[in-house]
Specification:
Elements: E1 8-9, E2 20-21, H1 28-38, E3 42-46, H2 56-73, E4 80-86, H3 96-109, E5 115-118, H4 123-135, E6 139-142, H5 146-164, H6 169-172, H7 179-183, H8 190-202, E7 211-214, E8 229-233, E9 247-249, H9 251-261, E10 266-270, H10 277-287, E11 293-297, E12 301-302, H11 309-317, H12 332-338, H13 342-352, E13 360-361, H14 363-375, E14 379-381, E15 383-384, E16 387-392, H15 395-402, E17 408-412, E18 422-426, E19 430-434, E20 455-457, E21 463-472, E22 475-484, E23 495-496, E24 499-500, E25 504-511, E26 533-541, E27 562-565, E28 569-573, E29 589-594, H16 607-630, H17 638-641, E30 649-652, E31 658-661, H18 669-690
Parallel strand pairs: 3-4, 4-5, 10-11, 12-13, 14-27, 16-22, 20-23, 25-29
Antiparallel strand pairs: 1-2, 6-7, 7-8, 8-9, 15-26, 16-19, 17-18, 19-24, 20-21, 21-22, 25-26, 27-28, 28-29, 30-31
Length: 691
Amino acid sequence: MSTDAPETVATTAGALEGRELEWAVNTPELAAEHASINSNIIRTRFPPEPNGYLHFGHAQSMNMNFALSFEKLGVPMENRRTIFRYDDTNPDAESPEYIDSMKRDLEWMGWQPEKTTYSSDNFQTLYELAVKLIKKGLAYVCDMTKAEMEAQRELAKQRCAARAVGTDPDAVAPIPSADILPGRNRDTSVERNLKLFEEMKLGLHDEGTLTLRLKMDFDSPNPNMYDLVAYRIRYTPHPHAGNGWCIYPNYDFTHGICDSLEHIDYSICTLEFETRREPYFWILWALDMYRPKVYEMSRLNVEYTVLSKRRLLKLVNAKYVRGWNDPRMPTISGLRRRGYNKQIINNFCNEVGATRSAKVVQMAKLFHVARLTLADTTRRAMAALEPIKVVITNFDEEAGKVGENGMTFEVQNSPTDASLGSHNVTLTGTIYIDSEDFKTEDDPNFYRLTPNKPVGVKYHGGNLICDEIVKDGDKIKMLKCRLDSSEGRPKPKSYITWVPSDGIKCEVRVYGHLFTQPEPSDRWEEELNPESEVIHSNAIIDPSVLELVDKKDVNEWKSNQALQFERLGYFVVDTDTTFDYTTREGKLVFNRTVSLKEDKTVKKVSSHEEEQQRKRVEQQRAIAAARDIMMTIDPKDLFKLAPEYKDKYSKFDDTGLPTHLADGTELTKSAKKKLEKERAKHAKKFAKNKK
C-alpha cells in the first residue's frame, strides 16, 4: 500500500528553511538545469486565488515575496524577481471582478512583478503531466463517492493512530473490504485509467462521478498523502481560460508544478500549508521536476477583524458592510478607501515582519504607523462635524480695526514642511464651531467655549466670548458671541478651530472597529459593532479645500485627497463624492482614517454592560482553568478523564476512542469520526504544551 515514503530529515536552520524531505532533494541534473536557467537570479512568487479581494494577509505576502524574503536571504536588488500568478483552478469561486481588482491592488501597492501568469495557462501541460503519472502507475481514475472517500480516509487515520501507539491496526481498525482501503480503483490498469481520464476531459461523465487520484501512501501519518484528488469534473466556464475545459486540477496538484515550471526558488506560504509539504514534493518527485525550497510563515491576524474569505464574503453578501471596499473591511481596497496609502500598509507589514510564531497584531499598531506617515505630508483644513452656528455681534467693529483683508489669514498647509505651501482662511461675521468645543455649563476640566469662559480663536488670536445661547426647544440653534482683541484680554487656555460662513457642507463618516471583540469568535456575526460607522451628515469644512475635492479627481483605484481636519483627525475624500467645485453642487463625503491621537478615554458603560463584562471575565477564567486541566490529560485518556466527557461513555477501543455511550448505545461512524478529530486537535495542543 505504501509508495516507499521517505523519512523526514532534520530541519535546517538557514534563512527561509523549513522541514525537509528526501522528496525535496533535487538530483544533480535538475539542480544544474535550474542553476543554468536562473543563474544569479532568485525568484519568488505571489499566487493569490481570485476568489475575493486582496486583504491584510495578502499585503503581508506581497511584502514578503517582493521584498522581505530577499532581504532575509541577502539578495542584491538586481537579482530579485517575483512572479504574480493567479492561482485560478476553481472556476466556481473565481470571477473577472476579482481578477481585475487583484491586478489593480498590486499595481497600487507599488510592487512590480517580473511577469503576470495564470495557473490556468498551464492547463494543457498539467493535463499532460497527469497522463504521465497514469502511465507511471502513480495516478488512477476513481469512482468512489464523497462518503466513501471520507470513510476511506477515516479508516486510514485510525490505522495510523493505532500504529503510532504500538497497537495492531488490524485489531483496532480492520479493513472491511479492499473496495474501501486501498479502494476498488487503485490497482486498475493503466489502459483503463487513460481511457477514463480522456473521457472525463471530453465531457462524457457527470460531475461528481469520477476523479483522478494520485497513488500516494495510505500508511502515512499525514492524511494529505491519502491518495490526493488531482482532478474533478466541473461543467463551469473558466473566467480566464473560457469554455475549453470541463476537468480542473486542484490546488495541491497545480501549485507545485507551476512553481517548478516558472523556475521558482522559494515557494512561500502560511503555516496551515505546512502539512502540504509531503504532497507538494511527492508530486514533483514523481514527475522528476525541479523542487523549489518551501518556507511557511505565520498567518497575519489583526485585532477586531476577520480575514477568512468565507466570512468576508458573508459580510458583503449579507450587506453588513457597503461592499468589498467598505472602509471597515480589511481588504486593500477598503484600506485605501479609508485613507491608508501604500506607504502606511507596507510600513505596517515591515513592522509586523514575517516569522513562524502565531500572533494577533494590535490594530493600534496600524493606527500608529498611519499617524507617523500622515503627520508631515497631509494638508491641514478646519472642519466641524456637528456644527454650531456662531454669530459674532461685534464683527464689523473688530474688522474695522484691522482694515481690508485684516480678517484673512495665511495658514501653512503643514506646520513642519514649508514646501507644502499655504492657503488662506477668512473669518466672517457668522462662523461654525464643532459642538465638541462648546458646553452650556462651565467645567473646570473643559478648556473650550462656555458662557462664562472665553476661548481663543485659531489664527485670529483674539478671544471669543459667548453672551447668549439661542435654542429651539432643547437644541442649540445658535450662539451670539463677541470678539475681544483688546491688549488686556485674559489669556485663553486653548484655541478652537472654526469654519467661515461660506464653508462647504459635507458628510463625514467616522469609523471604529468592525467587531466588539479583539478576536471574533465562531459567533462573529453577533459580535459586529453597531457603532462601527457613525455618519455626520451636516458637517462643514473650510472653503480653502474647494479645488482639492472635486469629483473628477476621485477614483476608487488610487489614494484620494487626504486632509488633516485640525484637532479632529486624518480624513480622506470618499468615492461616493459627486461634488463639482465649479458649481458647489453634489455630495462631498469624507472618511476618517484615524484620530490625531490614540483614544484613551474611558467609555461610560451601563449596569447591564458591566454585568455582561463580569460574566465574560468569569467565563474566560473558567475556560482558562479548564484548559489548564486539559493540558494534563494524555490524548489516549481524553474521553475518560476530561471533565466534558466524564461518565459520557462506557466502552472504548484500544486507542482510547469511545465506542459506546454510557447507556450502552453504540456510537455511529460519524460520531466516532468527530471524536477522532477532537482527539487529534487535543493531541496537537498537548504535544505543543509539553515542549
